[in-house]
Amino acid sequence: MAPTPRRATGCFPAISALAVTIAFAAALGGCGSRLGDITGSVTTPNPDTSPRQRAADIAARYQAQPGNPEIAIEYARVLRASGQRAQAVAVLQQASMQAPRNQAVLAEYGRALAEAGHYQQALEVMSKAHTPDQPDWRLLNAQGAVLDQMGNHAEARRYYETALKIAPAEPTILSNLGLSYALSKELVRAEQTLRRAVAQTGADIRVRQNLALVLGLQGKFAEAEKIAASDLPPDEARANVAYLREMLKQRDPLKTISAPKKPKRV
Fold first, then answer.
1. What is the C-alpha separation between 170 and 39, in angstroms, rounded?
2. Beta bridge partners of 35
3. CA distance to 34, 212, 227, per residue, from 178 (Å)
4. What stretch(es) of the chain map to CATH 1.25.40.10?
5. For residue 199, pLDDT beyond 90
6. CA 192 to chain CA centroid, nearest Å
7. Is 136-143+151-260 a CATH 3.40.50.300 domain?
């Protein structure tokens, strides 16, 4: 098993965001294997309120108004952020039953299902959250990431390509597409796609770390380590480089990002 970087903000774990950049990436939301934001934040948190207090506040609001879809979405996000994935799924399942045509609820429900490892159900729910005549590129990107987690790389890429028609050169889509090529061992195409992603305005550290991984897989260690150490304070940079080195020692490093994840507290 590959070691975990010293801090959660050291983003090599975000390569597993192929689920689900992910960012499952905005599709990669934050370091981790979460599907990115699809509907946006429901409320603006008070910066003077602690995360624990905000969580308590939204839990109280949910208990008072369990039928309010916006509150259910916000509460589920709090639960997911604290690792309570099964509870988040339960909250959104109830919300989807009460508001079966609410696309924001369905989108969030699909994300929560995917994060909990219920991939087939996630795809079914996501397909109801947007329509062919009004597709959402974020959902298409997320659906592609789920299919990659299921090993259906060719189908996943069709979703990414459709998403790119709506949001050309969007770095989170390109990042997931690049990782999809990496998972099928097409490393040259993966590198080309990830370099294109990195060159886009808005590309963040997670996209660059994905490029570093693919460069390392091809033996381009000097450039990979330079990228792995960029954007970070020295201690986190050292942790990322160490993680990269250990990961690349594995017999099949790509299993780190392709193996389905069981729900667990983080």
1. 17
2. 28
3. 18, 12, 16
4. 39-132, 136-143+151-260
5. yes
6. 21
7. no
Local structure of residue 65 (DSSP, 8 states): -
Give the 3-state secondary structure of residue 45.
Answer: coil
**Is 39-132 a domain of CATH 2.60.40.10?**
no
**In this structure, what token pair is assigned to residue 156?**
């996943």
- CA-to-CA separations, 6 to 107, 180, 213, in angstroms, rounded: 33, 27, 18
Which residues neighbour 188 within 8 Å (Cβ) at sequence distance 6 or greater? Answer: 218
Block residue for tokens 């959902």? 139
pLDDT in tens, 122-166: 999 999 999 999 999 999 999 999 999 999 999 999 999 999 999
Encoded amino acid at 226, one letter: K
Residue 134's DSSP bridge partners are 131
Residues 6 or more apart whose Cβ sits within 8 Å of residue 159 = 140, 141, 143, 144, 147
Structure token digits, residue 71: 């509150």
